[in-house]
Amino acid sequence: MAAPRTPPRDKPRFGPEDFARLQNVSRETLARLEAFVALLAKWQKAVNLVSRGDIEALWERHILDSAQLLDLLPLPPRGRDRVIADLGSGAGFPGLVLAIMGAGEVHLFESDARKCAFLAEAVRITKAPAAVHNLRIESIPERLPGFKADIVVARALAPLAKLIEYAVPLIEKSGVCLFLKGENIASELTAAKKLWNMRIEQLPSRTRRGGIILRIEDLTIERSDKPRQRRRPQ
Length: 234
Known about the structure:
The protein is α/β, with parallel strands linked by helices. The protein has helices at residues 16-23, 27-43, 58-67, 95-100, 113-126, 140-143, 160-167, 186-193, and strands spanning 83-87, 105-110, 130-134, 149-155, 171-181, 199-204, 212-217.
């Protein structure tokens, strides 16, 4: 008679100590992230900030997923901090996590007023260098004339071509876009390359199997589908 099978052990839950070990953060930074996570869990009861199943896996699916962008940021401009724009910030991923970890001056753009109220409270309790803007992304150039960011980030927001359309009016000429994407990115890349000139790098996500981080530079304002002028014969 075969021996009864031992039930499989549950995978240990990824928590703040695991995050601190991987990211090598200070105790102070970890405490601020823990305060952020506790606040999110509290507000989640009244406001749908993340999916219900993600509450038990916040440190890996959201905190670590956001923090992995830190090593991909360009160096700060001489004499000032980086300016980062997080489009469709939602519950603060990735922008607020980056701000808590000292990435620079972060602007969190979100159209949902309830989520903005949460973000404002999270910024207050964590003392993160971040500003919350209750704006639709399309209205940013009009509502914040002259605003420019060194880096534009977004996570699970829109197709790539649309993200680039959002980013172009907001980014410095030497700026970088960092977009967290899923594995089915090929069609989005094909569509975006028909409309925009850019230099693009695909990097594997550390937290999601098949996930991709797109690092985009050298975006041109003019679309590549415009007819090129013919050179006159010499």
